[in-house]
Design goal:
The protein is built from 2 helices and no strands. It is mostly helical.
Length: 58
């Protein structure tokens, strides 16, 4: 939950709504955003480096 849902406030609102509807899952509410943000940061660093290298060719 929280990925591909827009900005952080929107994602948190969606996650809160799911928690209210299906019940709390504190572990998932903590781990999913943490792991997702770390994954996105690593992937973004590769994409940014790739884009800079491609732009440097021109």
């Amino acid at each position: 939950c929280g990925f591909g849902l827009g900005a952080v406030p929107t994602a948190m609102a969606n996650m809160s709504t799911l928690t209210a509807k299906y019940g709390p899952s504190p572990r998932a509410f903590f781990i999913v955003p943490l792991v997702g943000s770390l994954f996105i940061n690593v992937v973004n660093s590769f994409f940014i480096t790739l884009a800079i290298n491609i732009a440097a060719m021109f």
